[in-house]
Amino acid sequence: MFEHLEKYAGDPIFGLNEAFHRDVHPQKVNLTIGLYYDNAGCIPVLSSVRTAEQRRAQEPEPRTYLPMEGLAPYREAVQKLVFGAQHQALQAGRVATIQSVGGTGALKVGADFLHLAYPDSQIWISDPAWDNHHSIFQGAGVPTHSYAYYDPATKSLRFDQMLAELRELPPKSFVLLHPCCHNPTGVDLSPEQWLQLIPVLAEQELIPFLDMAYQGFGAGLDEDAFAVRAMADAGLVFLVANSFSKNLSLYGERCGGLSVVCATRDEADGVLGQLKAVVRRIYSSPPAHGGHITSAVLNDPQLYAAWVQEVAGMRERIAFVRKQTHEQLSAKLPSYDSSYFVKQTGMFTYTGLSSRQLLALRERHGVYIIDSGRISVPGLNTRNIAYFTDAMADVLSA
Ligand code: PMP
Q1: From which residue to which does the signal peptide run (predicted)?
Q2: Based on the domain organization, do 114 and 188 belong to the same domain?
């Protein structure tokens, strides 16, 4: 009955991650999947999360369904974190927010909602992209296209070309943007560039969809939300997906948020109803455990303060590893410009290594990097940086 279906090729990142685990190389290094590892190579359980979980375990409650839109205190905490507690868009009641099934769930609900609102619109996504952006929107019936973003020659942003291309889009087109820590390149717009982009989005009547999966991993929790807040300040109508997978290290608990910034409170009320309708027909209600834990951390002043410190610790470790890698590579291979390690931010760095170099890294050194040359930086730590930079120097000088 189903033989006619194409075989699913699997996700190449997950596939390579599995190959890494099968490899018996004694010094193997895994830089494939976008997970934050601590300096010991472990995925942390944050102390703020542990405390919230202990409290919940001591006072067990019936495991009922959450409302379709999620827990009210969770949704309020998402709004404060994403927009800043005092933002006038929140005070005016113009933002409709739901608790989502991770960042991916927020993108899916947002994609279905946008398709419902504007069935003829299409979406433009950065080149290169997090591949799932294309899949999610195509799955929602929204045709996808690319806009110029990253220049491999300079390892930096093609900002003028990006602006020029966005200026040509039909009104009501959707534009997927990363407010911080762009996946896969680690190259972001500066605050000045966001301020140049916003009038173009407004003049063209484009509908931005901001995907913020790494808030706090770039310059800081507030700094990383600059684009979101600047767009809300400018009165744009737009969507924001946020994820707690990385910054709360809660990957499998599937915690995120989707916010739609509207023109009026009335519009936001109507939008919230439509978001609930979309949720109802996909998964009905979001996960309760992660919802309660996230809400407890974000709403308890002490746990929140502890969490802010923990996010700072993760961010600072990434910055440290980037700096060390750059310094060691500069010393080992002075002719190679590795400054991109410190210019790019967040979890990812785009190395520009060729397929031949990536294969050599894997086969000769047990260093696993995905085919695009994207490195997930937190796979590096004080025990493997020297080994990694030796391996890089070897394949780059061959
Ligand atoms: N957007 C981007 C850009 C991502 O990198 C990721 C995580 N890999 C997501 C969304 C999805 O987040 P989550 O894992 O919370 O579904």
Answers
A1: none
A2: yes
